[in-house]
User: What shape does this take?
Amino acid sequence: MNRAYKYRILFAVLAGVFLPPETLVNWALPAMYREYAPGYIHGIWLLKAFLVVGGLLLWIHARRNHEFWRSGVPTGMPPTAFARWEYVLLGLVILGSVALRLPGLDGSLTFDEVFLVRALITQNPIKMFFHPSGSAHLLHTLLANGVMRVMDVTPWAARLPAFLLGALTPLILYLAIRRILSRPVAVIAALILALTPVHVWYSQEAKGNSPLMFGVVLSWWFLSRLAARWNSRDAAGYLVALLVVGLSHLSGMMFVGVVGLALLIVPRRMHGWLGDTALVGKMIYIHLVALWLILLVYAPIMPFLVERGGTGYLTEGAPRFVVLGREMLGQFTALDQAWPWLVAPALLLFAGAISMCGANAGLFLLLTLPLAIDLIITVTFKLFSFPRYHMYFLPVVAVLMATGITGLWARACHIGTAFARLAAAIVIAILVHAALAGYGLAIHHYYGWPKSNYAATARLIAARPDSDPVYVVGHGRKGYPASGLVFYTNRFETDDTIGPVLSKTDSKKMLTVVVLDPLHAQVSYPDLLRHLKAHASSMTIWPCHGELDQYRVRSSLVFEIPAGVLGAQLNR
Assistant: This one.
């Protein structure tokens, strides 16, 4: 065993034994987090346990497996050389991917993005790691923090890491699938992922979903290289890719764990494309090490993550197979389009599943079994869940659709008569064009609306005279949804300030009232919303996309109403 490696493991064990949680928390915790001290103490105890148990297991494994990292002999076919046209193709894929993700990169931030920018991204790294809310997008938060240290605090700067990694993901997908399957499948899968509306969406959002998908595809690439020849460099790369997945989003921990479980339970006779059984065992070990390292990072805030994870509500975040399956099909293909546009992608997915299952059942299981295990766990334990919590499966959707297209075409070419082949080719062309049309309409729709109306509201406020107050319906500047507007402007009134303002304002003067989230107002301010609709002299409706979940904000409302009429309603 390497001496330096041995001493690092020994240091981890000793640190776990002698780390004093109470003393450390009381010494290091910022004053603003003092009330959370008990949770952090429990988290440090978890860290101690992970360090001790994991460190000892690593020590035992290292002593018994001296040759673990040594390179082995090639076990698979060497990759085919790149043709000149492939370099041109990859350049076009990158250019197209960037071109699709660049427009609107500086658009209005969503509520979640504003929280991440103000509470985490612009803070010091210690606060990013140990914020009591639990940073579910840790890697992107760190990368965006680095960007904002050299650039202004702007929406495009906050989204830059997600944009860059999202634009590169189709390229890495091509390189991985080219090794695992074939060039035609790789080309089509890369194009599908580059065009997928929800991938464009998250490549323009200051969150960890885009880095998560990048890490997943990167892990496939390293896995394909390891399947051809085990070596320490690609094994380390595979470990790093899994860490990228786990630290990009909390759901990445599920991916790392369930893929390792899938490697364990897939029958050995289906491991042929991966090499011998010993290679599969090494990959499972890398998954265990990656999961251990990820848990070490999250351990100090693990009590808060468990407390805030909760269970799904009856409608919002409901952990039900039908709800999640329906929403995943809609969001992972022709986003926001009517159900007829989902027929073609669904048929291509089904054809891809049949084709891959027949030709390479082991690969099919390794791609799809993680989602099955994930959904079973989610539904069984009623974990709060949205389709975006399973975004690691989006590249699989692109691969299955590509496999469906190539599989159908291969079958069509072997049909007996020329007329039958022509008819089959027409059917395939219709399916492909219908799927692309749905994707195109979804992207066009996406470009047509902002993600939120915070920026538009700020422009409206800036256009009004300083003496004219604007009332934003919401529980104060620190509450939802007004706290999202603070990123753009502070010149507005909310519940805790509108009363004194109205008492000093001419009762006949027209006031502007902004309802950023009508659904929230309908639940929390039903009487006020009815009063505004009944007595306002005018109303404007602003459409927007909102958060990508089951019940997101689709529009905002702007009313003009006399100050006296509004004051009478608020004083009731």
